[in-house]
Amino acid sequence: MDSAAVKKYLFELQDMIVTRLEEVDGKKFRRDSWDRPEGGGGRSCILEDGNVLERGGVAFSHVTGDRMPPSATAHRPELAGRKWEALGVSLVLHPRNPYAPTVHMNVRMFMAKNDQGEIAFWFGGGMDLTPYYGFEEDAVHFHQTCRNALAPFGDSFFPKYKKWCDEYFFLKHRNEPRGIGGIFFDDLNQPDFPTAFALQQSVGNHFLSAYVPILERRKDTSYGERERDFQLYRRGRYVEFNLVIDRGTIFGLQSNGRIESILLSMPPLVKWRYDWHPEKGSPEAELYEKFLVPRDWI
């Protein structure tokens, strides 16, 4: 098992995604390299106030530490206290147009080593889509591409990882999903390192084909104040999930991570309302009734 190969792949993946998004938006990302005093560092690529993306962040990190944070050992208490390293690319894109969905993607690897040099590793990640106005063709395309990413590894992976995504990206305090899901996986170390790494690569490599066609289809749709207002309201759910539930955010905070990089997923503008509900029969109500429900899209 070789973390250098994973690091090389993830750094190149970040470059590939940022380059393609710059082509879509027409503006350049800021590339911000940083070091972590405790060990490691990374590069955060951020675009704010773009032509298409109101805010987009694509972050690469490779960080190390002497003791695994509690969030990383919740399911592996036997690894508490070990030295560790974590590598990953994580992105969140918040388009300006309310008809274009927000998207999240993350691929990562952890390694933990004890005093005898024994190494434990696991991969995780996935991608999920958060629309503000739902379109069946977008949902089908996104889920079909997710299935294509996993198909070479067997038929069981997509239904398992889709279900995992539906369950993970769920706001229990609201009793509603964050979006229409996609795929999510964690703790992957079987059957061996090369196969688990290959699956992670396939997920990362399918991101652009899953999302960019949707973004290009919706980015120029005409909208008004009503649609913009609803978009900002629904963005509040995104903030709630990331700050209250998301394991990646919690890990970053517990490991004394770089705050600017951890919170680059936050939307630039957002609003909350007290006990608000969409008007029956409205396009906003349709999001809740037809899209924010468990569905097999393909």
General description of the model:
This protein has 298 residues and is α+β, with helices and mostly antiparallel strands. It contains ten helices and nine strands. The protein has helices at residues 3-25, 70-73, 136-150, 157-168, 193-205, 207-218, 225-244, 247-254, 259-262, 283-291; strands spanning 30-35, 40-48, 53-65, 83-95, 102-113, 119-130, 170-171, 176-177, 181-188. A seven-stranded antiparallel β-sheet has the order 1-2-3-4-5-6-9. β4 (83-95) and β5 form a beta hairpin. The longest helix has 23 residues, at 3-25. It is globular, with a radius of gyration of 19 Å. The two termini are 35 Å apart. The model has no long low-confidence stretch (mean pLDDT 92).
Short structural description:
This protein has 298 residues and is α+β, with helices and mostly antiparallel strands. Helix content is 40%, strand content 26%.
Main beta-sheet annotation:
7 strands, antiparallel
Output mean pLDDT.
92
Q: How many helices in DSSP terms?
A: 10
Helix/strand/pairing class, anyone?
alpha+beta
Distance between the termini: 35 Å
What percent of the residues sit in helical stretches (DSSP H or I)?
A: 40-55%
Catalogue the unreliable spans. Answer: none
Strand percentage lies at 25-35%
For the largest sheet, list the strands in their spatial order: 1-2-3-4-5-6-9
The value of Rg in angstroms is: 19 Å
Order of helices and strands: HEEEHEEEHHEEEHHHHHH
Which term fits the overall shape? globular
Total number of strands: 9
Catalytic activity: coproporphyrinogen III + O2 + 2 H(+) = protoporphyrinogen IX + 2 CO2 + 2 H2O
Organism: Candidatus Nitrotoga fabula
Function: Involved in the heme biosynthesis. Catalyzes the aerobic oxidative decarboxylation of propionate groups of rings A and B of coproporphyrinogen-III to yield the vinyl groups in protoporphyrinogen-IX.
Binding site for substrate: 90, 106-108
